[in-house]
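Data deposition worksheet. Section B asks for the primary sequence of the deposited chain exactly as it was used as input, without tags or linkers unless they were present during the calculation. Section C holds the resulting structure in token form. Section D is free text for depositor observations; keep each observation to a single sentence. Incomplete worksheets are returned to the depositor.
Section A, Depositor: J.P.
Section B:
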Amino acid sequence: MTSTTDQDAGSADALGYEQARDELIEVVRRLETGGTTLEESLALWERGEELARICRRWLDGARARLDAALAGPDAGDGAEDGADDDVDDVDGDGDGA
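Section C:
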């Protein structure tokens, strides 16, 4: 049997970046506004920490995907580093003629 905490963690992981960010903004607003009990404030803080972790995972994942896309399959073949310099080398002997 799964605990409520396990279910909450599973549903929290299902949040998209924008959903987690928007909820985090609301949590911060409520904490800054005040007027909550100590228990409510602690619960909000804990929720905010979890939402921040979710956002960080999304951002880290996006960064990894961007890095991989920028590296791409052409990263080691010099395709963008002047590989077209030998275009004039019609006979392929490297002398450019």
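Section D:
Residues 1-7, 83-87 have pLDDT under 50 and may be disordered.
The helical segments are 4-13, 17-33, 38-71.
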